[in-house]
Design goal:
Bound molecules: cytidine-5'-monophosphate, zinc ion
Number of strands: 13
Helix content: 40-55%
Strand content: 5-15%
Oligomer: single chain
Radius of gyration: 22 Å
CATH topology of the largest domain: inorganic pyrophosphatase (n-terminal core)
Structural class: alpha/beta
CATH architecture of the largest domain: Alpha-Beta Complex
Number of domains: 3
Shape: globular
CATH class of the largest domain: Alpha Beta
Distance between the termini: 36 Å
Largest sheet: 6 strands, mixed
Length: 467
């Protein structure tokens, strides 16, 4: 592991160990949940009392509450965008992978800050919030067991933030964590079909619901999915369809090669054809056929809790509840899936508007602000126009939520959505940040048109620099 990261983790751990009680504040998505769970397990093993709070984003109000409580606080998967606003007078540890505003770097001595961007490591692909928490947990674990076994949760966090997407596998620090997890027997990895649901879905549903990549002539079509599998020689087992994990190696091979052939015939881009096979991550201690066995299904299960205000349910699952809270999480998952399907349908029906350098849709109150970013990302994957980043608007309690998603090709051309959203949101009295490829903001309700004009121009400037 990168030495400066380790040294920073050591100093974070030293601050934490001074206290018998701390508070964890984390982000309401799969990465934030797994980050908090890793921290919570590590603190428990070190005998440090703690409580955990989840927030949509870190704003001044949240930081004021932290200051009022006057308890040492560990921020996971958030904090780096608000360094200059951190409350004075209490010990603060930040383990985050979001972009840092350069102006904020010289912060208070009471703030210990671990972030890959500080050491030239890309926080959007090489290390997640959960990974940052894992590195601190390793330092905490020096004299309370190694905490190395928490690597499976760190992988779920990275996969939840789509960090394996660019290369079809985890890279950089994430890969080191993966190997550590494999060495202690908690995680396995192999090349396999990338489609979602290999552990829990009947195999034809894998095809029918595939959105990443979208399978022309198959996605959204139940009978076409069943026919396709019949042609591959996959049939009923008794009354029941098999899941992907029930197929033999030969059967899997046959389906994969037929799928590749199908996609070539349908003139699908080679980018998307390549994405049919990726590295996949299996949590070795979890029961086969459950969501928790597959990192990607696990992450979606967690998103289905925290993004709907039930982070405590997701956290309980991460900590090990396989009874009541898991049942609750599965109920929430049914609802989450329905919302994603409806969200995608909304975008298809309402359409996407193109400006000069960006494209956008406005979901109003039809898509929840906490999942509009996921819908935007899925829409960009499947849209014909991958030459422009996509922006989405949704109403939220605190104003107008903006979510933005780009592509690796656009990043290579100079796009940085976190910089653009931070700057343009600030100009309309809003707040934003995130990563180069995925970022968000909250702006005042009436500021949409002005914001669109600003952001279209700024993205144009970013892309022009390297043109
Ligand atoms: O707040 P956080 O860092 O956890 O969120 C990262 C977001 O970036 C996730 O919603 C993830 O889906 C998105 N992302 C993306 N494409 C990538 C990498 C991340 O859409 N290649
Ligand atoms: O909400 P959404 O999934 O679109 O967020 C994308 C990325 O932008 C996440 O990493 C999130 O933490 C970040 N974000 C932010 N400030 C906001 C909203 C989102 O840094 N106000
Ligand atoms: Zn994250």
């Amino acid at each position: 592991m990168n030495q400066p990261l380790k040294d920073t983790a050591d100093s974070c751990a030293a601050v934490i160990k001074k206290h018998s009680e701390v508070r964890i504040v984390s982000h309401i998505d799969a990465d934030g949940l797994t980050a908090a769970a890793i921290m919570s397990r590590a603190l428990e093993r070190s005998g440090i009392e703690h409580s955990t709070t989840f927030v949509k984003q870190l704003d001044r109000g949240t930081l004021e509450r932290v200051a009022d409580l006057n308890v040492p606080t560990v921020f996971t998967d958030l904090g780096s965008g608000m360094l200059s606003e951190m409350p004075a007078g209490i010990d603060i540890v930040i383990a985050d992978h979001h972009q840092i505003d350069q102006r904020d770097v010289g912060c208070d001595l009471q703030v210990r800050h671990l972030n890959p961007h500080l050491f030239g490591i890309d926080g959007s692909t090489e290390l997640s919030g959960a990974g940052c928490a894992y590195i601190v947990a390793q330092s905490l674990g020096r004299d309370a067991g190694t905490n190395a076994d928490l690597a499976d949760l760190a992988i779920v966090g990275a996969v939840g933030d789509l960090q394996a997407r660019r290369s079809g596998k985890l890279v950089g620090c994430n890969r080191e964590i993966l190997k550590r997890g494999r060495d202690c027997g908690v995680i396995e990895y192999k090349k396999d079909l990338s489609l979602f649901g290999k552990q829990t879905r009947q195999v034809f549903r894998l095809l029918q619901y595939s959105s990443d990549p979208y399978l022309p002539g198959i996605t959204g079509n139940e009978s076409a999915s069943i026919e396709f599998l019949k042609r591959a020689g996959i049939n009923f087992r008794g009354e029941q369809w098999k899941r992907w994990i029930d197929l033999s190696e030969d059967e899997k091979q046959k389906v994969v090669s037929m799928l590749v052939q199908h996609c070539i015939t349908k003139k699908m881009s080679s980018y998307n054809i390549h994405r049919l096979i990726t590295e996949v991550y299996v949590l070795a201690r979890e029961q086969e056929g459950t969501e928790m066995r597959d990192a990607s299904e696990y992450a979606t299960l967690l998103n289905a809790t925290a993004r709907y205000g039930f982070a405590d349910v997701g956290l309980a699952v991460c900590i090990g509840d396989r009874e009541m809270e898991l049942t609750r999480a599965r109920e929430l998952l049914v609802n989450h899936r329905k919302n994603l399907v409806n969200g995608l349908k909304f975008v298809r029906e309402e359409g996407i508007t193109e400006l000069h350098h960006i494209q956008y849709f406005d979901a109003g109150s039809s898509i929840k602000d906490t999942i509009v970013g996921i819908v935007a990302g899925m829409s960009l994957t499947n849209t014909r126009n991958r030459k422009m980043p996509i922006f989405a608007f949704a109403e939220s309690d605190d104003g107008l939520k903006v979510s933005a998603r780009g592509t690796q090709g656009l990043i290579r051309q100079g796009l940085n959505l976190a910089d653009a959203l931070k700057a343009c949101a600030a100009k309309v009295e809003g707040m934003g940040g995130g990563h180069n490829i995925a970022a968000g903001a909250t702006i005042p309700m009436g500021a949409k048109d002005e914001f669109l004009e600003l952001i279209d121009a700024m993205v144009g400037e970013q892309l022009a620099v390297k043109a």
